[in-house]
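[User]
If only I could read backbone structure tokens as easily as an amino acid sequence. I have put the entry right below:
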Amino acid sequence: MKKLFVLAVVAVMALGASAQNWYVGGAFGYAHQTVETDIDGTNVEVKSDIFTIAPELGYNINETWAIGATLNYTWAKDAYNRFSISPYARYTFFRTDNNLISLFVDGGAGLGYLKPDEGDSKCTWEIGFKPGFAVNLNEKFSLVAHVGFLGYQDLKEAGKTYGVSLSGNDITFGFYYNF
């Protein structure tokens, strides 16, 4: 019984020590999209508002590397709903001396489904890199932004895309709480 108690105390202490490396937070994004399309020989302008919310959980392995995952939900007015999960590895390649600002790139993959307003659900996936930066307000709170995407996306409804993207759909702002 004594050994079990000591083991439990050590386990709780280890969990408490490792909790300092976890972070939780999320991001949001908004884009307004205008697409010109040809419908039955008539040029039509289709406008859509796109909202994204992405809660996130991660673990800092060391000062340079972190791993995590985001749950992404995107709603495009009069177009589609998309849900996906995106695990990633984060490489932080620059920090200021006072640790106020850091630059990083997330390399990862995402898998999900897209439900158009009309039609059947479709599987979606992506693989690529998302650069970003963080402003560390204090030890516990950080403001974070992801800007752009470099990789391959198969979003079915929007088609297959590869290359570099810096559209409003690829810019998100969020925060982290560091344990």
